[in-house]
Task: structure prediction
Amino acid sequence: MKQSVQSLVIWFVGIFLTVVLFFVMAFISLILHPFDRKRKLAHAQCFWWTDAVTALNPYWDVKIEGLDNIDNTKTYVAVSNHQSLADIVLMYKTKMQFKWVAKESLFKIPVLGWNMQLAKHIMLKRGEFSSIKRVYQEAADWLRNGVSVVFFPEGTRNDNSGIGEFQNGAFKLAIREKVSILPILIQGTRDAIPKGSWRFTTKVSCLIKVLPAVDTSTYLASDFNVLRDFVREELCKN
Result:
């Protein structure tokens, strides 16, 4: 009974906070549109949101490591393994300015998807070559304008215990745009959101660990696979 009541409260307050976030982001985007075309101030509202959402959930024990590896004066192609929807909540703990590359279905989720549209995250329509091409052009444009871009190079959530194989796009982009790769390891979020039930029943320890950035200036365009495998190995070692 206690777990059911707690779970209801967690879901209710989480949804309420997400709705509040939407109205705050919409207001800021409207009022400051001429001065904040990159939506940095709107994006920054997600920082208090993630702190509130994680603080209210007694089943989540969240730790953040390696924040000193982030230089906020630099632009990165950030790559992370992907375990669950909770990854999106916790990634804002890094307090970085970034744009996600996210599948179209996430943009269709009420409120959450609206927030993603307000922040100008990058929508990927799977299976459409024109969409993939547009995604990388949009990502390149953001990088050239001083905004980092976050990729999940596994391509989808990994239901296994390890880290899946990485796709090439993020690494080709980093080499071409001459920006560093920022590896971010996520652990413990696979069970952070209940599957097949609305009840939280198990305490989970979640870790977001930012690894040292990988300089891409010495890599040739043809070396994307070397860079890809090196970054994946670094994530797997931690």
Remarks:
- The CA atoms of residues 64 and 208 lie 5 Å apart.
- The two ends are 38 Å apart (CA to CA).
- The first strand starts at residue 60 and ends at 65.
